[in-house]
Amino acid sequence: AQDTTIANSITTGASWDGTTSPGSNFTITPTGVISTSDPYGVTVVGTAGAVLGTFLNGGLVVGSSLTGSAINVGTVTINQFTNATGATISATSRGVLVGSTGTSGALTNSGRIAGDQAVQNDGSIGSINNSGTLFGSDRGIYQTSTGQIGTIVNDGVIAAGTTGPNAAGGIANGGLILSIVNNGTILSSHSS
Hints:
It is built from no helices and 21 strands.
C-alpha cells in the first residue's frame, strides 16, 4: 500500500483513498501544514468496506470552509485516528466528521481539535480517548441519531462555547454511546 506523508505546507485539500491504497497510512509530520478553504482539508474516501491503516497528525490542519470539515471520513474504515501532542486540527465548521457510512477505530487526541463541533459522528467510532482539548463553539462531541461510539475516555477537556445561539453541550448525543469515563473536564453552556 502507498502511504502518504505531508511534511511541508499545502493549500489544497488532500485525499486518502481506501480503494487505491488499502491498508495505507496517512501522516502529517510536525512540519506539515494543510491550510485550505476547500470543503475538506483531508478527505478519506473509498468503496464501501475499504479499510485504511493509521491517520496520524503531528502538525496542523486548518479548514476555513464554512460548510466542510478539516477531516472528513467517508465510506471507509480507519483503524486508528491520532491527533498527537502539540498537533492541531481546526475548522470553521467541523474539526473531524465521521460520515454515516464512515468508521474509525480508536480516535485518540492529545493535541487540540476545534470547530463549531470538534468531533461530529454520524457513523461509528470504536472509542474516543482524549487527553488534550476537544473544543466546539457549539459542541465538543456531537453525535447524530445515526452515530455510535463505544467508549469515551476523557482525561483532558471536552468543551462547548459559552456564547452564541448554538452553544450547547460538551457532549451532545442523539445516538448511542456505550460508556463515558471522565477523569478530566467536560464543560457545557446549556443542555443540548
